[in-house]
Amino acid sequence: TKLKVTMVAWDRYDATVITAVNNFLLKVWNSSTGQLLHSLSGHDDEVFVLEAHPFDQRIVLSAGHDGNIFIWDIDKGTKIRNYFNMIEGQGHGAVFDCKFSPDGQHFACTDSHGHLLLFGFGCSKYYEKIPDQMFFHTDYRPLIRDANNYVLDEQTQQAPHLMPPPFLVDVDGNPHPTRFQRLVPGRENCKDEQLIPQLGYVANGDGEVVEQVIGQQTNDQDESILDGMIRELQREQDLRLINEGETLPNPPLNRSHSVNGG
C-alpha cells in the first residue's frame, strides 16, 4: 500500500518535524539532517491534527478520527497522556481540530458531533454555568458582497464586525435565557428588555394561547421578533455613534474599509 502523509507539524523551535502517516504512525524527524528519530504508535485511524506546545519543544499533541487525543514527549519518543472521546450512546467522536492556550496549560478540541472539548488543570465548575448547546444566532446567517466585494450581512447590510453583539441560541435557534445572554461580550450590562427571553405566549390560528419560543414568532412583515430586536439594536448603536460625534460607516455600496477593519 502506498503510504501518504496526512499532516505535518514543526516543534516550537523547528528542531524536529512530525509527520502523520495513513498507516496511523507518527514519525519524528530531525529537521536539519532528515534523520528519523522516533516512530510513535497509538492511533488506530488517520490523524489530521498535530499541534506543538506553545513554548515546550518536547511536547506535541496529536488527534484523529479514532477519537484519541495523545500528548507526546518527542525527545524521548514516549506517550505522556491519552484521552478518548467516547460519546454515550453514540460511540466515539472523531477529533477534527485542537489548539493549545497561549500559556500551554489548556487545550481545546472540536469533534465530529459538534462538541467543544476543554482539557486542562483544575475543576470544571467554572464551565458548568453555561448550557450544553451554544451558537450565535448569526452563525448561519446568509452573507452577500457589495460593489467593492466586501462581505456584508444580508439582512442588516452591515459588515459582520460592525453588527451588535449576537444572541446565544441552542441548536434549533431558540434563544437562551437572559442570564446566558449577558455572557456575550458587549451584553454584560444590557437591560432585560434588550435581551431575549426564552419563551413567550402567543395566540395561534385556532385562538388558543400557546407557549412559543420568541425567536420563532414573526410580526406583520414576516420578520422574526429576534430579527426585529437586532434591527432596533443596530439603530440604537448608530444613534449613539452620531451623538458621540463619530462618523458612521458609508452605505454598503460605497464602503472603503475591509471586513477585518484594516
UniProtKB/TrEMBL annotation:
<keyword id="KW-0677">Repeat</keyword>
<dbReference type="GO" id="GO:0007010">
    <property type="term" value="P:cytoskeleton organization"/>
</dbReference>
<feature type="region of interest" description="Disordered">
    <location>
        <begin position="243"/>
        <end position="262"/>
    </location>
</feature>
<dbReference type="InterPro" id="IPR036322">
    <property type="entry name" value="WD40_repeat_dom_sf"/>
</dbReference>
<dbReference type="GO" id="GO:0008360">
    <property type="term" value="P:regulation of cell shape"/>
</dbReference>
<protein>
    <submittedName>
        <fullName>BRWD3 protein</fullName>
    </submittedName>
</protein>
<feature type="compositionally biased region" description="Polar residues">
    <location>
        <begin position="253"/>
        <end position="262"/>
    </location>
</feature>
<feature type="repeat" description="WD">
    <location>
        <begin position="40"/>
        <end position="82"/>
    </location>
</feature>
<keyword id="KW-0853">WD repeat</keyword>
<dbReference type="InterPro" id="IPR052060">
    <property type="entry name" value="Bromo_WD_repeat"/>
</dbReference>
<dbReference type="InterPro" id="IPR019775">
    <property type="entry name" value="WD40_repeat_CS"/>
</dbReference>
<dbReference type="GO" id="GO:0005634">
    <property type="term" value="C:nucleus"/>
</dbReference>
<dbReference type="InterPro" id="IPR015943">
    <property type="entry name" value="WD40/YVTN_repeat-like_dom_sf"/>
</dbReference>
<dbReference type="InterPro" id="IPR001680">
    <property type="entry name" value="WD40_rpt"/>
</dbReference>
<dbReference type="Pfam" id="PF00400">
    <property type="entry name" value="WD40"/>
</dbReference>
<dbReference type="GO" id="GO:0006357">
    <property type="term" value="P:regulation of transcription by RNA polymerase II"/>
</dbReference>
